[in-house]
């Protein structure tokens, strides 16, 4: 018996589009996984951490070799205020984004919320820590060494980073020459398996946990990927330079010593 439909029958509907990583997480199957208490059981005391590990498929069935995570409440940005929002998250909202915007304008670091200089961000952070009365925290401007044994150990010991990078459409690190510069608050690290004598021997083994002003969720990216994106911040976006707004750009550009490239802030508790 022939099962071919007659020619007058309408064609079958096209197959559904492939699921993205985000939509997969939102699917019924992923929801079932997230509700399974045995998945990422090691992170069950930290809901945001567990959700991040499920989203990025990290250590689903066994605990990582080592990890450190510090919870910060998300704050969503309005306008180009990603750096200010990340800094406000770090001080637990004691100094809000609007107050930070006013401060950055007053001291000449920004016009619209943009922070295109790590030096200026470090100066602003010092003032904010004082306003928030967080005298037990030190802020250090670091030049180079984001992907290093030193920084990995600092994160494992509870340090927090404020890192500029190029953001892709899903806000993960990418390489766009600085045209999509963004800021992330690095609030944790995961070493998936025992690296032996050298933490840096396998770049895919080290993830950092991050918050930023475009999402309510904690992101998990490889430290190597964040490092490469930070190293790629060469120039201010040409389109933004023509959008009619006046931005405070550092002398020498984003890629110079006064800019963003190969620099970040390290916060430590004393």
From TrEMBL:
The keyword Hydrolase applies. GO terms for biological process: proteolysis. Residues 7-19 have a biased composition (Pro residues). Residues 1-32 are annotated as: Disordered. Keywords: Aminopeptidase, Hydrolase, Protease. It catalyses: N-terminal N(alpha)-acetyl-L-cysteinyl-L-aspartyl-[protein] + H2O = N-terminal L-aspartyl-[protein] + N-acetyl-L-cysteine. Residues 23-32 have a biased composition (Basic and acidic residues). PANTHER family: ACTIN MATURATION PROTEASE, UPF0692 PROTEIN C19ORF54. This is Actin maturation protease.
